[in-house]
Amino acid sequence: MPRAIKTPRDDDDDMTRPKLTYLDMRGIAEPIRACFRIGGVEFDDVRVSYEDVRRSRETLPFGQVPTLELDGRVYSQSGAILRCVGRMTGLYPSDEETDARLRVDMILDVVRDVNQILAPVWYHNVFPRTEGELREETHLEEEEIGRMVHLVNTVMLPPRVKQIEKFVASSSVEGPFVCGAKLTVADLSLHRLLTGLGPNGDYCDGVCVSELPPRLALLVEAVERIDGVIS
Ligand SMILES: N[C@@H](CCC(=O)N[C@@H](CS)C(=O)NCC(=O)O)C(=O)O
Q1: Residue 132 CB–ligand 1 contact under 6 Å
Q2: DSSP assignment of 162-204, as one string?
Q3: In CATH, what number does 3-89 get?
Q4: Nearest-5° angle of CA 143, CA 147, CA 152?
Q5: Does the pTM exceed 0.90?
Q6: 66 alpha carbon – ligand 1 mean position (Å)
Q7: Given 3-state DSSP classes, what are the helix, strand and coil percentages for the chain, each rounded to the nearest 5?
Q8: Where in the chain is the domain with CATH 3.40.30.10?
Q9: Residues 163-189: pLDDT tens digits?
Q10: CATH tag for 98-224 (out of 2.60.40, 1.10.10, 1.20.1050, 3.90.1580)
């Protein structure tokens, strides 16, 4: 049976301080960092280079970052980590809150879908790194990247953004967030994506959502009013 791990929410003097390891950028780890900050949970915010990732690949569960070290064990996958830290900090709905839980998971999954569309543009490659390396055979030239970015901006993203807008607006509980009045990890994840894809965004070179629809603009504003979101 998997052993229970100690977390900073447990009443235990020898609890370990969580260690989050990621590149020195906002990237896909920023919602996790924000979650720790908002929840007032102290953590080690370890920033590494691609070279460091390459060197320590064998010790990482899937050879990549982010990783979370808790109670001496190392975990990975940004979605799994975000859910875990969300549970520690009260920003992930409980088992009993079925509607809220599903809404949050749906948003986390749709953000992952968008990330998958962006991956070739990030890597200039059809595939992400394998064993720390990008394959020569599948390298994408500037001109191909340009065409992909154009398609992402004009064909792939606009309907997704519309769907997310409609979905967020469909909450049965009043309030600016995905689950109405209560902030969750889904809002942090959406905030990261949508601000990163804004006109001055740092999420993916050339990819831009020029204007957010009203409900999503409201969500972004509401998230930014929360202490700890912006580091
Ligand atoms: N599905 C993984 C993707 C992780 C990932 O792509 N990590 C990249 C940085 S954003 C990485 O570690 N790249 C270095 C490498 O693969 O060598 C997650 O969500 O955590």
Answers
A1: yes
A2: HHHHHHHHT-SS-SSBTBBTB--HHHHHHHHHHHHTSTT--SS
A3: 3.40.30.10
A4: 145
A5: yes
A6: 7
A7: 50, 10, 40
A8: 3-89
A9: 999 999 999 999 999 999 999 999 999
A10: 1.20.1050
- Residue found under tokens 């990261």: 192
What tokens appear for 66 in the block? 């982010």
Q: Give the separation between CA 42 and CA 14, rounded to whole angstroms.
A: 14
d(Cα 208, Cα 153) in Å, to the nearest integer?
6
112 lines ligand 1 (CB under 6 A): no
Nearest-Å Rg of the Cα atoms of the chain is 18
Residue with tokens 């004009």: 154
Helix, strand, or coil (residue 13):
coil
Atom 14 in ligand 1: which residue has the minimum CA distance?
Answer: 64
Q: How far is the CA of 23 from the centre of ligand 1 (A)?
A: 9
Residue span(s) of the chain under CATH 1.20.1050 come to 98-224
Tell me the C-alpha distance between 76 and 73, whole Å: 10
pLDDT tens digits along 70-124:
999 999 999 999 999 999 999 999 999 999 999 999 999 999 999 999 999 999 9
Q: Which atom of ligand 1 is nearest to the CA of 50?
A: 14
